[in-house]
């Protein structure tokens, strides 16, 4: 499956998704992972935060998990806030967990991981902010 660029397809993904795993959450309101999640949550998505550094803390009213593998529900969208070099580990855990769409926030793109996940049949969105997508498409 090619990388998804069509706004119509992205809108369809958003409308058919419920659970979003935010990888790399920060408790700092000035960080994109925080303010993007704050807006996405307002659109009715269930947000599950992942960052081993903040495991057990509550951010935006939600617990922070050590790993995506610790989230107790199925995940529709993996929303990524990590350095491109670290994305491979997130992708490996996400494949073990299961998900539908791997969402590379601007600045997180790892082309090898994107290509690999696309070839495995996962939806991949590159360099499009999930907050902006919600605001533009929903």
CATH architecture: 3-Layer(aba) Sandwich
Number of beta strands: 7
Order of helices and strands: HEHEEEEHEHEH
Into which percentage range does the β-strand content fall?
A: 15-25%
CATH topology: Rossmann fold
Which parts are unreliable, with pLDDT below 50 for 5 consecutive residues or more?
none
Radius of gyration: 13 Å
Describe this structure in words.
The chain is of the alpha/beta class and 138 residues long. The chain has a single domain, classed as NAD(P)-binding Rossmann-like Domain (Rossmann fold, 3-Layer(aba) Sandwich). It has helices at 7-15, 32-42, 87-97, 111-119, 130-137, and strands at 19-23, 46-50, 58-59, 62-65, 77-80, 101-104, 123-126. A 7-stranded mixed beta sheet has the order 3-4-2-1-5-6-7, with helices on both faces. α2 packs parallel to α5. It is globular. The two termini are 24 Å apart. The model has no long low-confidence stretch (mean pLDDT 97).
Brief digest:
With 138 residues, the protein is α/β, with parallel strands linked by helices.
Features:
138 residues, alpha/beta, Rossmann fold, 7 strands
